[in-house]
């Protein structure tokens, strides 16, 4: 077996291992049985109807939407500032500051969640949707910075210099020239941060208090075997939504690179 064949075999095995659970999810969501096992007993959409009638689920979804939308906006705004600063200016300890910003990418979420919980309780901040947003902004900002840094790096500085020569200020140049060019990257960052926040569980579970987001609600429902099929139906919908959002984000990322004349070297993930 040569190297190419071995690499292809490894890639196939890896992809099957990675995506098999996602493929099985809709199979059991449409299965006419409360027992999650083969063989399948028949086709049904009953579990989707049961999911739709769950009022608590929609309250949790509302909480998650508030958290995810707010997180996406705040993380992307911080990402714009950080990406602009690091790609356009030089300042002391630049590498160290960027390392601290990107640190949540490599820290275990369990450690981040426990640390935030200890700090928030020590300073007397009650656990709520607000504290979940704080945690989610912390872990999604590095993703926003990574996406937006690529967008800012591909900008042609001569466009800004031409704007200054024509009498525009730094603020108006950023608003009229820079911002439209990096807008695909901003949209991509918003979608990615939204998706990450919506799917995140550990920080939401630790910092949610009495406010239950969707991820924590799903985890709690798996304690009851009768509720598992409805949760699989919900999971099927969430997987479909996540794939659509990621595809849209990738489209805007590539559009942004093409708009600035850059070369696409692969997906943002």
Polypeptide structure, described:
The model has no long low-confidence stretch (mean pLDDT 81). The protein has one domain: MetI-like fold (Orthogonal Bundle), CATH 1.10.3720.10. It has eleven helices and no strands. Helix 2 packs across helix 11 (228-259), helix 3 (55-88) packs across helix 10 and helix 8 runs antiparallel to helix 11. By secondary structure, it is mainly α. The protein is globular, with a radius of gyration of 22 Å. The protein has helices spanning 3-29, 46-52, 55-88, 94-102, 109-122, 129-153, 157-165, 170-199, 202-207, 214-221, 228-259.
Comma- or semicolon-separated keywords:
single chain; 269 residues; mainly alpha; MetI-like fold; 11 helices; 75% helix; globular
What order do the helices and strands come in, and which of them pair?
Layout: H1 3-29, H2 46-52, H3 55-88, H4 94-102, H5 109-122, H6 129-153, H7 157-165, H8 170-199, H9 202-207, H10 214-221, H11 228-259
